[in-house]
Write a structure and sequence with these properties.
Number of helices: 3
Shape: elongated
Helix content: 25-40%
Largest sheet: 2 strands, antiparallel
Structural class: alpha+beta
Strand content: 5-15%
Number of strands: 2
């Protein structure tokens, strides 16, 4: 009798408790997505993309969608559905490049005799030493 118990448990399977409620499906509706738009406007955007894709091609439809993205984003920010972080932070521009840096000799003057040599550099994290070509002033 006991030897048939595991087989019976496999056939019957686990029985859920009576008070257990079924899991609610998780909705993947982001705050800042097309799902935040009213249904007529969402339908207009989708139909506009599909019609442009059929008549003018994918590249043109993608360009149109990219142009519409800014206006829709501003509308969602005004409604409070999206945080107003896009484009808000000003990034500092890098200084313009000044061209090639001159290799200087020991006296601080531009070098006239530059030679390329192999130099050894240490490896990091247990890596072996490495060789690299380096410009060296021979004045």
């Amino acid at each position: 009798m006991l030897r048939h118990l595991p087989t019976a448990l496999l056939i019957l399977g686990p029985v859920p408790p009576v008070e257990a409620t079924p899991a609610q499906p998780v909705q993947k509706t982001g705050q800042c997505s097309i799902d935040s738009l009213p249904e007529p406007q969402k339908r207009r955007l989708i139909d506009g993309y599909v019609s442009r894709h059929k008549t003018q091609g994918k590249a043109s439809a993608d360009a149109w969608a990219k142009a519409q993205e800014g206006a829709v984003y501003k509308q969602l920010v005004a409604q409070g559905a999206c945080p107003a972080t896009r484009g808000a932070a000003q990034t500092a521009k890098a200084p313009p490049r000044t061209g090639k840096k001159a290799i200087l000799n020991r006296r601080g003057q531009p070098c006239r005799n530059i030679v390329v040599e192999n130099q050894v550099f240490p490896g990091f994290g247990g890596e072996p030493m490495r060789m690299a070509l380096v410009q060296v002033c021979k004045d």
